[in-house]
């Protein structure tokens, strides 16, 4: 009965806000952003080691990604909002040439390690007929 006095737009906005906020935990960018403010001794186990990607380089990559998200948000709320798809597509070459844009601070291997889930090996069956049947490469969730 009281919901009838609340405008539908407010209910829809609240629903989208709730869905957006509930999706943040588990998002890799959000999780790495939290690590910027966390003492290194309190870090949870990561998918990569310090030798794979030094912590400073991980934070630099996170900062660059966060700035790009901010750029996309700014474009979507500005006069040039019609150009949003162009900026979104430009994120592809930005990622591809990030090692050059950072003058080698982030290498191709660092970007690949941080941006992609490494493949894991999952055993399918014990009754495999060849060694290639028993194991398949599968992306981590």
Architecture overview:
With 141 residues, the protein is mainly α. The protein is built from 7 helices and 2 strands, in the order ααααααβαβ. The chain has helices at residues 8-22, 28-36, 55-76, 84-96, 98-101, 108-115, 131-134, and strands at residues 119-123, 135-139. The chain has a two-stranded antiparallel ribbon. The longest helix is centred in the middle third of the chain and has 22 residues, at 55-76. The radius of gyration is 21 Å and the shape is flat. The chain starts with 7 loop residues before the first helix and ends with a strand. The relative contact order is 0.09. The model is unreliable at 118-128 and 130-141 (pLDDT under 50).
Write out the strand line-up for the largest beta sheet, numbering strands in chain order.
1-2
Number of helices: 7
The strand count comes to: 2
Mean pLDDT: 81
What is the H-and-E element order? HHHHHHEHE
- Relative strand content: 5-15%
End-to-end separation in angstroms reads 43 Å
Low-confidence stretches: 118-128, 130-141
Rg calc: 21 Å
- Which bin fits the share of residues in helices? 40-55%
What's the main sheet like? 2 strands, antiparallel
Coarse structural class: mainly alpha
Shape: flat
Keywords:
2 strands, two-stranded antiparallel sheet, 7 helices, mainly alpha, 141 residues, disordered C terminus
Would you summarize the structure shown here?
This protein has helices at residues 8-22, 28-36, 55-76, 84-96, 98-101, 108-115, 131-134, and strands at 119-123, 135-139. It has 141 residues and is mainly α. The protein starts with 7 loop residues before the first helix and ends with a strand.
